[in-house]
């Protein structure tokens, strides 16, 4: 986003604003690692509600509980207040052992589903995307050492016959993060390209100055004042307070 009060005219008619397969089915799904296995319901005073914490696998495709009392507002506050899981190669057991269990003792494994999705969509290998993103193509598993810890490389060498067999969703999730980022270089490359082409390939991007479709500058700068915190407050029944930056936790219960 540009820090400006003027229009932004960076539309490029040669860019197709489609969703990249490798973004939708690998890079973006890496953030399943942030899912926590419980949902806190939090009151306006930032205390646990009578429902406390809900086990995630008890409520997949069963949203009825948010129709009771103030639970929708309490869930909204809780989602803004509780921490996410660390962004790494580990995933909560609620989605690796109990995903969509629907009352059964065990469920599916979302991580396994993510890997299979790579194959179903015919994505190229992690090694191919390394090369596409300007990184060195690995000829041996040891060549992954520029981005992946040795302990993880050893596991890959036991599970795969060749560096070219490693799926994008697996290899990308093991990379050391770029400084200031939540992902490694390969996923960063894919995500950056996706967001760039989504923006500059959209003729109707809201910041355009095209006189046929543009907002007035007054309207545009009102839109720029919007925030996730404002959105949460506006869509709750009685949410009176929210931290200014809705994606940043301010303290613990």
From TrEMBL:
<keyword id="KW-0408">Iron</keyword>
<dbReference type="InterPro" id="IPR010255">
    <property type="entry name" value="Haem_peroxidase_sf"/>
</dbReference>
<dbReference type="GO" id="GO:0046872">
    <property type="term" value="F:metal ion binding"/>
</dbReference>
<dbReference type="GO" id="GO:0004601">
    <property type="term" value="F:peroxidase activity"/>
</dbReference>
<keyword id="KW-0479">Metal-binding</keyword>
<protein>
    <submittedName>
        <fullName>Peroxidase-like isoform 1 protein</fullName>
    </submittedName>
</protein>
<keyword id="KW-0349">Heme</keyword>
<feature type="binding site" description="axial binding residue">
    <location>
        <position position="32"/>
    </location>
    <ligand>
        <name>heme b</name>
    </ligand>
</feature>
<dbReference type="GO" id="GO:0020037">
    <property type="term" value="F:heme binding"/>
</dbReference>
<keyword id="KW-0575">Peroxidase</keyword>
<dbReference type="GO" id="GO:0006979">
    <property type="term" value="P:response to oxidative stress"/>
</dbReference>
<dbReference type="Pfam" id="PF03098">
    <property type="entry name" value="An_peroxidase"/>
</dbReference>
<keyword id="KW-0560">Oxidoreductase</keyword>
<dbReference type="InterPro" id="IPR019791">
    <property type="entry name" value="Haem_peroxidase_animal"/>
</dbReference>
<dbReference type="InterPro" id="IPR037120">
    <property type="entry name" value="Haem_peroxidase_sf_animal"/>
</dbReference>
